[in-house]
Amino acid sequence: MTQCKSPVSNALSLVGGKWKIAIIYNLRNEPIRFGQLKRILTPITQQMLTKQLREMERDQLIVRTVFEVIPPKVEYSLTEFGQSFMPVLNSLCRWSTEHKDLMQTISDNRLSSEVP
Predict the structure, then answer these.
(1) Residue 42 to residue 35: CA distance in whole angstroms
(2) φ, ψ for residue 74 (rounded to 5)?
(3) Angle between helices 100-114 and 86-98 (to 10 degrees)
(4) How many beta carbons lie within 10 A of that of residue 90, not counting itself?
(5) pLDDT for 115
(6) How many CB atoms neighbour CB 11 within 10 A?
(7) Which of 13, 18, 62, 102 is deepest in the core (most CB within 10 A)?
(8) Sheet holding 73-78, edge to edge
């Protein structure tokens, strides 16, 4: 018997991980070229960014547009499906802003507990 995934699991399978939400956030207003995304998302590697973008394109969150010019130009933008995630992302941003001080304290405590 196959178990159904929860709605949260389904969503996280598409946008989970270290970089995908950051990619969506940066594509929220306009298309962005690969190199620009790489600079914005430093320290992401070229290999990881390529992998994440391919997965997101496969999952219909973003669209890759190739312009037939020299040198080649490629832009990434959110699909309608990707744009539909914006209310969730906006809520996450609001929540993060409202709890910024507590989150900083938690982060500081994590770092201090990792030091030998």
Answers:
(1) 11
(2) -130, 130
(3) 80
(4) 12
(5) 60
(6) 13
(7) 62
(8) 32-33, 73-78, 62-67
How far is residue 73's CA from residue 25's CA, in Å, rounded to a whole number? 21
Domains and CATH numbers, the chain: 14-114 (1.10.10.10)
Distances (CA, A) of 6 to 11, 18, 31, 66, 80: 9, 21, 32, 36, 23
The pLDDT tens digits for 79-97 are 999 999 999 999 999 999 9
Distance separating alpha carbons of residues 9 and 76, to the nearest angstrom: 25
> CB–CB of 26/86 below 8 Å?
no
Amino acid at 100: K
In one letter, which amino acid is 92?
L
The whole-model pTM stands at 0.86
Q: Specify whether the CB–CB gap between 24 and 61 falls below 8 A.
A: yes
